Amino acid sequence: MASHPERMLKQIEHKPGKKAVFLKHNMPKKRKHGFATSVCIRCGRKGWGHTGKYGLEYCRICFREVAEELGFSKFM
Q: N or C: which end of the chain has fewer CB within 10 A?
């Protein structure tokens, strides 16, 4: 698999046959479920600490930074 598929695509852009084969075998899969589907809308971080409830779609770090602006308060 190519480390930068976009860079490789640029080189074979004018060769439709090679481009089709490259796309079939080397481009990353589109994810429907699992670890890589939840992405933070603010920083783009993927992973476990993701707040998707109520349609927020923030990672835990970004959520802590913007929680008060969104109307959440910290309970002690």
A: C
Residue 14: Cβ-neighbour burial (10 angstroms; 0-12, 13-18, 19+): exposed
CA 53/CA 65 separation, integer angstroms: 17
Q: What is the DSSP letter of 55?
A: G
CA distance 11 to 31: 26
Q: Do 26 and 36 belong together in one domain?
A: no
pTM for this entry: 0.56
Give tens-digit pLDDT for 7-52. 888 888 899 999 899 888 887 777 788 877 888 999 988 877 888 8
For the chain, what is the domain count? 2
Domain range enclosing 56: 32-76
How many residues comprise the chain? 76
Residues 36 and 72 in one domain: yes
